Amino acid sequence: MKSERSHKAQKLIDRMGQKLTRQMVLSLTACVHCGMCTESCHYVLANPGDPTYAPAYKADQLRKFFKRHIDWTGRVFPWWVNAKSIYRDEELEKLKDIVFGRCTNCRRCTVNCPMGVDFATLNRMARGLLVHVGIMPEGVAVVSKEQWELGNQMGVLKEEYLETIEWQEEELQEEMEDPEAKIPIDKMDADIVYTINPREIKHDPRTILEAAKIFYAAGENWTMPSEGWDMTNFGLFSGDDDLAGACARRVYEQVERLRGKKLVMSECGHGYRSTRCEGPNWSQKDVEFEMEGSVITMWRYVKEGAIKVDKTKNTGSYTYHDSCNNARSCGMTEKPRELLHSLVDDFREMYPNRADNYCCTGGGGAMSMSEYRTDRLRSAKIKADQLKATGADYVVTSCHNCVDGLTDLIKHYNLDMKVRQLVTLTANALIVK
Amino acid sequence: MSDLLYFSEHTLQEASLIFMAVVYVIRIRWIMSFTATQERQPATGRGVEDPSKGKKYSLANIAMPWAMESSRTHPFFYIQFVVFHLGVVAAIALSFIIPYGPGLLDSSFITVLLQIFIGGAFIVGIMRLYRRITDVYIRALSSPDDYFSLLLLTVWFAFAFISIPNDISGGEGHLLTYFILTAFFLIYVPFSKISHYLYYPFARYYIGKSFGRRGVFPIKKI
């Protein structure tokens, strides 16, 4: 019975009305179904002939509710404009598989839409509406819960964090042959407050050591906070603006507590976008201090001569993968390349690149949604072909998520290639007196 | 000229135009009733971040086929877009020229120009209809409004084309149909996808403002 709408479906419709902004309404009304976005999506390219992967088709899954309940023609003549309401929980589950499983919110379709429709923002909104009624992939629920409860998305306890930093500090002292070398925690009035991705604590503490070496070599007055150190933000992926605002605010408040002059975020595309670009909007907070991605910090050190590097230490050939969040949402495309040019001899550009680059296919939280792995890796063929065409030994990226996404697809497609981050190459090329 | 044709060319058109204008004002007020998201963060990007530059780039996108991969890699589709929209402009202009400045049609240059634009748009309309029916991706997206709007415009182009000489020696049927279709078009437009041109400047303005502030627009191509 169509008139019997489930409680969740009703809540979702009510919530949509509350979440609409002018930009979203324009994205919902402006689409002319021209199909120009279709070929911009790696899911479409890897699944030829299946229109359900097309960005406009996916956006229409939200647009049809909007038309049915908010827009005028759809309220009077729904069948004429494909306006439809939602009634059953099964329909919500189907919507979940589309917005979480068939889109990485990479925004490539957005920059290719002649009308200026921001598909990725619509998709994020649809995710947020589903999360509001408790419908999301299990991985999204688990990670969101950990970020709400523990303040980081990998369930890292404070003791574990501090012990790992201490361990890396010992490594730093050994490598620098300086017992006074420190990774300062909660140092007041530091010039830089350095925040990281919890993946670095959990799986890759080497990158913390590498960053510490660079700060040490530059003679930087820096610190890491004991709380609010996770600059990632699962709210960006889940569409939960409340979580997103809380995560961003948590980081900002620590910088304020420590009276830090600048917040620097380690190499993480979504963390950079969330904290640097979206966070002040989500948290409704005017941030008084400067914010900078560590790529820019390293670029600055090299440019200003604060550190010396020897590019011959990084042997082999390198290409650069632009993280979607860095390039397409924050315009960070040139400084990583300039830094990379100072670190390696053999750089090979990937095509297309910068804001036209293809997603690593692990974006939008896809790495946490194991139920969509098969689809994700099939769609990763586009990226795999792009990587292969460079003939490079290494693909460099400034994003932890991309590291995982690229590593997964390199393994799946048996590519003879390794993934590196700029922090690793910079630390390796360091000339320490 | 019959009273019916005179009524269609003048009173009907004017009433339809007023109706469309009123509905558009209501529509714009409706859009403005939604709160616009404010960007709180300082500008970022690659050193060229400038919201006003981003807005201009975004709004000029329509005339820069090289700016987007989707138009750069489909130049023929972009040409179709240009021809189709020039045809729209020409057919609208014709609906004013015939009643208010028929003398302009004495110029063979203007007549031929209108015929080229409107005739070209008619051909593109047929091609677009074929594409919408046969392309699996476009068909999956299409609503009855998508088909009807395209069909309406294509038929309108056909009648505009044969109305260009403004010649009633062989009867008034074609002119009458053109003006009645124009009136219907004006009334139907605000409720259909054809009103996309109303949203275009707003949508591109906001995306340009945001991407300009973040240094994404203008997109750097290498």
Structure description:
- The complex is a heterodimer of chains A (433) and B (222).
- Chain A is built from 22 helices and eight strands.
- With 433 residues, chain A is α/β, with parallel strands linked by helices.
- The radius of gyration of chain A is 22 Å and the shape is globular.
- Chain B has 222 residues and is mostly helical.
- Chain B contains nine helices and no strands.
Q: Please give the oligomerization state of what you see.
A: heterodimer
Structural class of chain B: mainly alpha
The amount of helix of chain B comes to over 70%
The chain pair with the largest interface is: A-B, 69 and 60 residues
- Could you say which overall geometry of chain A the principal axes of the C-alpha atoms support? globular
What integer value in Å does the Rg of chain B equal? Answer: 21 Å
Largest sheet of chain B: none
Instruction: Report the portion of residues of chain B in β strands.
Output: under 5%
Mean pLDDT over the full residue set of chain B: 94
The strand line-up of the biggest sheet of chain A is 2-1-3-4
